[in-house]
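dumping this here so i dont lose it again. seq + smiles for zinc ion
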Amino acid sequence: MSHPTYKHVVVIGIDGAGAFIREADTPHFDRIFAAGAVTYDALASNPTISAECWGSMLLGVGPEVHGLTNGIVSSTPYPVDSPFPSLFRRIREVMPDAELGSYCDWNPITFGIVENNQNVSTATARDSELTPMICDYIREKKPTFLFCHMDSVDGAGHGHGYGSEKHLQRIHEVDELVNDVYTAVCDAGMLEETLFIVIADHGGTSFNGTGAGHGGWTDGEKWVTFGASGKTVQTAYLEAMNIRDLAAIVLYAFGIDTPAFDEKGWTAQIPAGLFADEEIPAYRDISHLTGAAPRISKVPHTSELI
Ligand SMILES: [Zn+2]
């Protein structure tokens, strides 16, 4: 274990936002990450479906390794002895007193990707109702690692098309929720010691007359947003990143060693330019690993069509 650079990491995942945050009116996102690292060219996992993608981010391995699907994470608790532990288990192993939270609009993330024996504080509700709970939790517990998931943007994408006016409007509204969480971090006096991250899992297609979805490998589906803000984050546009890198970034923030890079296992890396640290290995191109057969998801999660 090397020296931790942060006491807290707060991640807000915005389901189905893709790279469309760039086109939406998001004054809070823009302000929070103005001096931070941003990209709209983070590569999703293939297929571009939630379980596959959130699984990649929380486990540091791709769908070609973890094998999770929406059906599996909705029906099967994540194995507590998996050879691919979640971030929660990896953090708990070295920080037994850490306060860990998973607050997810789409609860299968907590149920099917996070081990249920790691004393993780959890809650689930539609994102607008969940956010006040997240803010209370932050102010009260000052969590070490908090993962939040907002699902309504994906619902708007399914209903009206990704990149449509209503999809961009919902991104604008969720930007307010992001600001609520950020404000809670400030109120808790944590900001200086917090790595604050916003990330999307996948984008989606435009409306084709009957609906819209994701699961394929088109530009609108596979390119997503990532933003990071923190005291050691460089002001940068990240040219190369995969969403699974979130796992490496979170562990790095806490000074926790990551497993060795292994194409049959751990493939999360620290994107070049995110942190000024000469010890960080050169970034590897892993695009050849995204060979899973695309499946198309036309089914929204818990959110109503907005
Ligand atoms: Zn979806």
